[in-house]
Amino acid sequence: MTSVDPWSSCEIQKLQLEDTAIKSILEKKLNSADRPSWQEIALESPATKQYWALWDSLQLKDGVLYPRWQSDDGSSCRWQLIFPKSRIPEVLRKTHDSASGGHFGIMKTLRRIRKRFYWGRLRADVEKWCRECQICRARKRLKTRTEGRLQRYNVGAPFERMALYILGPFPVTKSICPSINGLFYEAA
Question: Residue range 154-180: average pLDDT?
Answer without folding.
Answer: 69
